[in-house]
Hints:
3 helices
Amino acid sequence: MHGPDTLAExxxxxxxxxxxxxxxxxQAHELVRTFARILAHRTGPDLPDWISTTRDA
Length: 57
């Protein structure tokens, strides 16, 4: 698992192609990135909102 700023150019291109191929994967990708930010920044109070958003997705 890498942060978006450490991806190789080919990985960036692959990620850019995902929304066209599968919108559901793009939505999942964004949910995972948000969860990773919550963990990385230790913003636990944001977790209930993230869970609610995830359930609604």
